[in-house]
Amino acid sequence: MQLLKERILKDGKVKPGHILKVDSFLNHQMDVALFNELGREFARRFAGEKITKIITVEASGIGIAAIVAQHFGNVPVVFAKKTLSKNLDGELLTAQVRSYTRGGVYTIQMERKFLSPDDNILIIDDFLAKGQALLGLLEIVAQAGAKVAGCGIVIEKGFQDGGQLIREKGVRLESLAIIESMTDDTITFAP
């Protein structure tokens, strides 16, 4: 998606450890007009699917998922929480996730009542690096007995193994921008 690539080149900053900082438009300050275009593109790519719910992991994926949901007829968005909360009740679906940027393992959780075997799920997230968040969400969907239509990623780090890992599982993966390589002053996208 050319608009996104241009924005990454204009406002993205590469930090040590192959961290791409896009907080001015994607995951701290949110450019809602850009999110709307992302939603339009995900809707185009998954046009043949009857999506019943969109899921993501808190926090960066929530804003994107909410805008994307509007392009699928305002389907509900359910997000997995990263910490146990007193207002989570009933049966929980859980998965262990290793965070690339946070450098630790945490349990994501979602109340079972929000997913059913009748659901056709679209997973949305801001980044894909090692694939651990997606694997955790896929595990939660499997626990619920729901179907996964696919995963929509805003930015995939193609030089890391997450995309390959998800694709090898036979999961449809649509990434709007795939970064092939990045250095302190250069970001190269996959064709």
UniProtKB/TrEMBL annotation:
The keyword Protein transport does not apply. GO terms for biological process: purine ribonucleoside salvage; xanthine metabolic process; XMP salvage. Residues 33-158 form the Phosphoribosyltransferase domain. It holds the Pfam family Pribosyltran. This is Xanthine phosphoribosyltransferase. Keywords: Cytoplasm, Glycosyltransferase, Purine salvage, Transferase. GO terms for molecular function: xanthine phosphoribosyltransferase activity. HAMAP family: XPRTase (MF_01184). GO terms for cellular component: cytoplasm. It is found in: Cytoplasm. The lineage of its organism: Bacteria, Bacillati, Bacillota, Clostridia, Eubacteriales. Converts the preformed base xanthine, a product of nucleic acid breakdown, to xanthosine 5'-monophosphate (XMP), so it can be reused for RNA or DNA synthesis. 5-phospho-alpha-D-ribose 1-diphosphate binds at residues 129-133. Belongs to the purine/pyrimidine phosphoribosyltransferase family. Xpt subfamily. It comes from Neobittarella massiliensis (ex Bilen et al. 2018). The keyword Transferase applies. Pathway: Purine metabolism; XMP biosynthesis via salvage pathway; XMP from xanthine: step 1/1. Its main location: cytoplasm. It comes from the Bacteria. Homodimer. InterPro entries: PRTase-like, PRTase_dom, Pur/Pyrimidine_PRTase, Xanthine_PRibTrfase. Xanthine binds at residues 20, 27, 157. It catalyses: XMP + diphosphate = xanthine + 5-phospho-alpha-D-ribose 1-diphosphate. SUPFAM superfamilies: PRTase-like. Its EC number is 2.4.2.22. It is an enzyme of class 2 (transferase).
